[in-house]
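On clarity, I found the account of how folds are encoded harder to follow than it need be. What matters is that the chain and its backbone geometry are given together, residue for residue. I therefore recommend that a typical entry be quoted early in the introduction. An entry of this sort, consisting of the sequence and the corresponding backbone structure tokens, reads as follows:
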Amino acid sequence: MELNGIGALVAGGASGLGEATARELAGRGARVTVADLNEERGAALAGEIGGSFAAADVTDEAQVQAAVESVEGLRLAVSCAGIGWAERTVKRDGPAALQPFETVVRVNLIGTFNVLRLAASAMAAGEPDDEGERGAVVMTASIAAFDGQIGQTAYAASKGGVTGLTLPAARDLARLGIRVCTIAPGLFDTPLLAALPPETRDALGASIPFPPRLGRPEEYAKLACHIAENTMLNGEVLRLDGALRMAPK
């Protein structure tokens, strides 16, 4: 897929991995729509990169549909919206709360599927290119899907669901010329880690075999763009983690 001139949607695009992806896509000539709950940051970013902003909660069908419909010539959708939660299955005062688990799964897994299905439906209505391709969807999981740590049951389950969604979705959409891949990042320098003390962040970076540092959001963005550009990449979950395998805690 040639990125120059295409319509692209980045869900969760106002910060972190999504912001870096929106910037990278715009730098390669794509017409980017940033979809996010944070209207102030999202609109500011869209203005900076010459794109558009759509206020959207990924779990809201109508809002995501409106965001998708606002993109002319949609060819690429990247899902970066997600939340985290840490809680042991059984704590000193009893079992884990059910509601946070449901919320994490709803945002990270159901929200990702919501973007996938609505974006793919819009792509299916477009004209295929010379290779029969109509579009691509890049989803975001985590290495927690494979190496979930103590307290990560909700997060790991939600991201594990995204990895499990990848291949059947790619097979589903193959007849329409739409590809689906997932990136599973390791420890990245995102707003989620920004609140940690510098010494903790340094220690986390040093735990990565190579390079011994936190991942940079632009490294995720470059991989997302490569997936879009490389037509043979389909139905795959790609770990982006510097060979990190997380310990139990």
Notes: The longest strand covers residues 178-185. The chain has a mean pLDDT of 97. The radius of gyration is 18 Å.
